[in-house]
Amino acid sequence: MVKKLVLAVVAALALPFLVTGVAWGHGYTTTPPSRAYKCKTGAVTNCGAIQYEPQSTEGPKNFPGGGPADGKLCSAGVARFAELDDQRGGTWPTTKLTSGATYTFNWTLTAAHATTSFRYFVTKNGWNPSAPLSRAQLDTTPFLTVPFNGQRPGTTVSHSGKLPSGKSGRHMILAVWDIADTANAFYQCSDVTF
């Protein structure tokens, strides 16, 4: 009887870690609005579970050498957020940006985490907005990197930087929040028009 009680207590204490994982940092981009954020606000419908937890697109770090598999970058490889990887025939609403201009990126963090950096990637000219996002479609050198050197950001984070030059038409920006003290990063995809 005592053994069963001990097992029950251990299981009850372990359950939150099994369900939610051990990473406490979560966040999403609001400017430009990411797909996850658009689902949260209802600007886009038929999004599945991501509308309730836009901050949870967490996957392996070390992008582009590591990280989520091609075709699963927007969901961070999390199956329950697969709607984010669906290009919907190129119909996700876009945010208008000016190529080469200075722009301020904003994140909302529901829980801060020791951070290596925030990095921003953009699709190549001529990419296929109807095909699942892959490394081959991205410029794999970030156009903006904001180092954090292991510091914890606040609940809102803003950084300004120059948007890539020579871009026109529909593109996607992949924002990556690299966590310093776990093996994970957070991935956010924003549909934009230059």
Automatic annotation (TrEMBL):
Report if keyword Signal is assigned: yes
- Alphabetized UniProt keyword annotations: Monooxygenase, Oxidoreductase, Signal
* Highest rank taxon of the organism: Bacteria
- Determine if Ligase is one of this entry's keywords: no
Q: Where is the Chitin-binding type-4 domain?
A: 26-192
Gene Ontology molecular-function annotations: monooxygenase activity
> What does UniProt give as the signal peptide span?
1-25
Which Pfam families does this one have?
LPMO_10
Task: Tell me the protein's name.
Answer: Lytic polysaccharide monooxygenase
